[in-house]
Amino acid sequence: xxxxxxxxxxxxxxxxxxxxxxxxxxxxxxxxxxxxxxxxxxxxxxxxxxxxxxxxxxxxxxxxxxxxxxxxxxxxxxxxxxxxxxxxxxxxxxxxxxxxxxxxxxxxxxxxxxxxxxxxxxxxxxxxxxxxxxxxxxxxxxxxxxxxxxxxxxxxxxxxxxxxxxxxxxxxxxxxxxxxxxxxxxxxxxxxxxxxxxxxxxxxxxxxxxxxxxxxxxxxxxxxxxxxxxxxxxxxxxxxxxxxxxxxxxxxxxxxxxxxxxxxxxxx
Length: 268
Prior knowledge:
This protein is an alpha+beta fold and 268 residues long. The chain contains eleven helices and twelve strands.
């Protein structure tokens, strides 16, 4: 990509207008609507500005502005959440990324977790040096989120309760069941703790695996929550699952129909 070079007066005016009217990203459709020109002309214009170093191409038809202080237009993503929202919408930021936002973990995860209704072929794309982990969900599963400001744009992120349940649905979203359990304990100690909401959300998700893992962890870390534990128990589905599908499981906890590693049985 070329270094930053000059553009004419007319282009500067157009570029300034686009910068004023966009938030975080610039698409061909954005440029066409703002400048009231054909999409083909907008696409050529954005491509030309990118070659001159004023914009940086994220994906085909999507660009971000290059900060004036940057010495190169080949810049990393300033805010990957905004890019995720633009590329994978309808979607929300979840898993460990949301857990970090809600202070449920002190671990640093460099991959951004995105739950989307899209069905992308590449579920682990790397965009300008930022890795994303994509999981497909149904449209009816788009609940339990909060809009948060990321720079100039609002992005949906799972609320603390939904964050926990998504990680119990798929422990990979929390980095495995061990860090997920740690985040669950932090949730139980936080001001965001809402046991009834946990149960309500779990019912809406209608996933038997969630009740098995949730009941097991509640019994272990919040044994006083008898009503919630019983709610999980009466909603158990048939069949046995693993506490974490990625781990070897030696022992079956029959009351939860859950295969767990031997180490989890020995722990108190």
